[in-house]
Amino acid sequence: MVADWVSFNVIDTERQDWARGWAKLKAFTEREGHARVPYEHKEGAFPLGTWVAEHGKLTADKLQAPAALGLEWAA
Q: Looking at the domain assignment, is residue 74 inside a domain?
């Protein structure tokens, strides 16, 4: 039962965060013509710059989507 709760509440929240961040990054990229988001930048109330910085180490499947926008993660 605990594993189900963790799976639903933690993993689902992580997916929602990823989806929200990706949508904000896509909008930023379309508007600005690049994906170099300043660390302090917010899209509305969403801390996009922080989100980009925190998601610098991702799995291969999640790296493919930002690469399509021309975003290169720092090593």
A: no
